[in-house]
Amino acid sequence: MDEAKLIKRIKTGDMDAFSQLVGAYEKKAINYAYRMLNDASDAEDATQEAFLKVFDKIDTFREKSTFSTWFYTVLNNVCLDILRKRSRTADTVSINQTANDDDEYELQLEDSAPGPYEQLQKNEAQRLLQDAIAQLSNEHRTMIIMRDINGFDYEEIAKITGVSLGTVKSRLSRARLALRSILKENRELFT
């Protein structure tokens, strides 16, 4: 898929091109939003809102950066808006929500598959990690998800978040320390 051609077609109102672009980004975008928001329904809503904003503002995309950088900037801002609204309307945030990530994991029925106890430990570790990430500040959560989960490079994170490269590195360092501190109690699950 040539994104530049798709974007030109979208700018002319081609809905098929927009559908192709959504198809290319949708799963990763929902995953990113879920990690930011820790709620599947909010993640889908945020992703849909981001795609609508992108479609509405596609004429303003000047291709100075990659489309993915522009899109994740929009998506990240939508997620941060939702988190800000939550903090204004609720005194506490539940960290005990369960995730339904059936799409992300493939169960393989081989002799070498982990036994029920090992799978339970793995699931518990994933749940604890997601809960720990949800406890981080919005800035720290953004850094962990973008760098350590989604694999963005430092420069791309700087462009998406609108902060300097040095700020990205220092926030990421502090975010990892904060996450390590939260996970300290359950260290045996992560070794």
Question: What is the strand and helix layout of this fold?
Answer:
Blueprint: H1 3-11, H2 15-37, H3 40-56, H4 67-89, H5 116-135, H6 138-149, H7 154-161, H8 165-183
Helix pairs in contact: 1-2, 2-3, 2-4, 3-4, 4-7, 6-8, 7-8
Task: Give a structural overview.
With 191 residues, the chain is an all-alpha fold. It folds into two domains: 1-90, RNA polymerase sigma factor, region 2, helix turn helix motif (Rna Polymerase Sigma Factor, Chain: A); 116-191, Arc Repressor Mutant, subunit A, CATH 1.10.10. It is built from eight helices and no strands. The N and C termini lie far apart (40 Å).
Short structural summary:
This protein is mainly α. The protein has eight helices and no strands.
Going by CATH, what is the homologous superfamily of the largest domain? RNA polymerase sigma factor, region 2, helix turn helix motif
Main beta sheet: none
The fold-level CATH name of the largest domain is: Rna Polymerase Sigma Factor, Chain: A
Number of helices: 8
* Multimerization status: single chain
Distance between the termini: 40 Å
Q: Could you tell me the number of beta strands? A: 0
Question: Which structural class should the secondary elements be placed in?
Answer: mainly alpha
Q: What is the correct CATH architecture of the largest domain?
A: Orthogonal Bundle
Radius of gyration: 18 Å
Uncertain parts: 91-99, 101-111
* Helix-strand sequence: HHHHHHHH
Strand content: under 5%
Percentage of residues assigned to helices: 55-70%
CATH level 1 name of the largest domain? Mainly Alpha
Number of domains: 2
Overall pLDDT = 83
**Inertia-based shape:** globular
